[in-house]
Amino acid sequence: MGSGHAQEAPIRGYADIHNHQFANLSFGGRIIVGEAYGPIESALGSHTDVDHHGANHSNDIVGAFLAARGPAVRRYGNQGYPSFSDWPDVEEVTHQKVYEDWLLRAVQGGLRLMVMLAQDSPILCPRVANDGRDCNDEDTTLLKQINAAYAMQDYVDAKWGGPGQGWYRIVTDPVQARKVMRAGKLAVVLGVETAHLFGCRTTGSCRWQEKLDHFWSRGVRHFFPIHQDDNAFGGASYFNPILQRQRGYISSIPLALITSYELATYDCPEYQIGRCNSRGLTDEGGRFIDALMDRGAIIDIDHMSLMTKRDTLNRASLRRYAGIVASHAGFNRLNNGGQDHEGQLTDADLRRIHDLGGMIGLITGQGGLTDIRTWSRPGREGVLHACGQSTETFLQAYLRAVDVAPGMPIALGTDFGGPLAQPGPRYGARACLGGRLPGAVPGTRALTYPFSAVVSGVAMDKMQSGTRVFDYNLDGLSNVGLIPDFIADLQSLGVTSREMDPLAQSAEGYVRMWEKAVGRSSPSGSLIVEIFSLFEADE
Question: Taking the model in full, what pTM does it have?
Answer without folding.
Answer: 0.93
